[in-house]
Amino acid sequence: MLGAQGRAVHQCDRGWAPVFLDREQSISLMSVGFLLEKPDEAVVWRGPKKNALIKQFVSDVAWGELDFLVVDTPPGTSDEHMATVEALRPYQPLGALVVTTPQAVSVGDVRRELTFCRKTGLRVMGVVENMSGFTCPHCAECTSVFSRGGGEELARLAGVPFLGSVPLDPVLTRSLEEGHDFIQEFPGSPAFTALSSIAQKILDATPMCLP
Amino acid sequence: MEEVPHDCPGADSAQAGRGASCQGCPNQRLCASGAGATPDPAIEEIKEKMKTVKHKILVLSGKGGVGKSTFSAHLAHGLAEDENTQIALLDIDICGPSIPKIMGLEGEQYMEDNLGVMSVGFLLSSPDDAVIWRGPKKNGMIKQFLRDVDWGEVDYLIVDTPPGTSDEHLSVVQYLAAAHIDGAVIITTPQEVSLQDVRKEINFCRKVKLPIIGVVENMSGFICPKCKKESQIFPPTTGGAELMCKDLEVPLLGRVPLDPVIGKNCDKGQSFLIDAPDSPATLAYRSIIQKIQEFCSLHQSEEENLISS
């Protein structure tokens, strides 16, 4: 999605060098995707092997000076999630951003994710509702494709901030497919406004001087 | 610097736990003790239990959120419309068990007489309960579902899985190895980011010799309820599932368009095949279900021919 497919991970004297997305080296990335010989190769690993890799991603990658480390996780409350929390605990993570879609079926699952956060002592920074309605490009009618209201309800249930809703936006999807910088290229799109607002709320809530 | 042991010799190989690539692997001791080499007796027990189950179908996806559980539930509903067919739906998404909600079984236990459902969701006392289990415990649960549930005479057992290619998938394939799985249906959405993961899923099936019934492209186009014009919310930037299936020589079972009624019905726990019989999504589903039935019947006759010859 970030236009880094096919890049390779190299070792340096401080460990694995992450892949930089831009010339300014302001965004770096690490993924098991970089370690596969072929992009269609299936990673058929059981828990322990995945846990070992996650630990290495935290401790053996030469991240350098970072303002934010964002960790994208698979759905669920299993090995990967436990391994990530354990690996990051010594570094006092700011917390978790929990993403849901509007429908009750999604909320039903994500409630359990919030319990996971509580049980592992991970602070929930807030809930984001994704795929929140679609505005028809032909007639501007807005349809709740995946029902409505789930994100706010979830935040209310859990007593955490509701950070915002991101609408379905084919421009965003296409941008990710083609590895473009959506933020740079489509500042006028509805998803951009929503994403910017959520990012700003996170920045506002982040303490300036970290311990 | 330690590399991740991706040259694992395999838990049942002679080199298990002893190979150079085993150093540092958390399972090294277990493998070296030879525990991985003896086949699990549960496999034979499950084979016996599965003798009364005619057809077994796995529903897989590479990515989450593509509509796999929705599909599994409606495959079950569609097949169960024939009162003479006995259907069982097994939900092995241990951490995210959505099937009870989609089937309308949260609280009220009413279900069609010929449709049985099993899910870890039924074992949780609160909707907030999280199943925070590592792989081995999830595998144990799956083993119990297959071995200890009294499935009875079943025409179709549909197994809904979590996304990916991990513990749950390996376990269900392993435990059903002797019982013969008819095949897998793989769900995707049209965009390349989803297809990329489906290709991995297809490779997984080929690796574990799991026949592929076909691919379903979900969320394939959206008809605006006001102006009736079509939009591609998830654009098929690389040709969608159709081109991928052609390249990989895998059947495309069909394309299901986005219909807001689907989401609403899943939230209410009702079959949208009944509630929206004229929706293009319903028509697509019915065609796909028929193709799956045809695949299973063909398989059955082939097997019967093999046995009698």
Automatic annotation (TrEMBL), chain A:
What the entry lists under Gene3D superfamilies is as follows: P-loop containing nucleotide triphosphate hydrolases
Indicate yes or no for the key word Glycosyltransferase.
Answer: no
Record flagged with keyword Membrane = no
Q: Name one GO molecular function term.
A: ATP binding
- Which stretch is the leader sequence? none
The alphabetized UniProt keywords are: 4Fe-4S, ATP-binding, Iron, Iron-sulfur, Metal-binding, Nucleotide-binding
Which PROSITE patterns is this protein grouped with?
MRP
Q: Where does the source fall among the domains of life?
A: Eukaryota
One annotated GO biological process: iron-sulfur cluster assembly
Cellular-component GO terms for this entry? cytosol
Name the chain's protein: NUBP iron-sulfur cluster assembly factor 2, cytosolic
Annotated source species: Saimiri boliviensis boliviensis (Bolivian squirrel monkey)
From TrEMBL, chain B:
Which CDD domains does the UniProt record give? Answer: Mrp_NBP35
SUPFAM superfamilies with a match to the protein in the record: P-loop containing nucleoside triphosphate hydrolases
Q: What are its GO biological-process terms?
A: iron-sulfur cluster assembly
What keywords are assigned to this protein? 4Fe-4S, ATP-binding, Cytoplasm, Iron, Iron-sulfur, Metal-binding, Nucleotide-binding
Q: Transmembrane ranges? A: none
Q: Which family does it belong to?
A: Belongs to the Mrp/NBP35 ATP-binding proteins family. NUBP1/NBP35 subfamily.
This one is known as Cytosolic Fe-S cluster assembly factor NUBP1
Question: Which species does the entry assign this protein to?
Answer: Saimiri boliviensis boliviensis
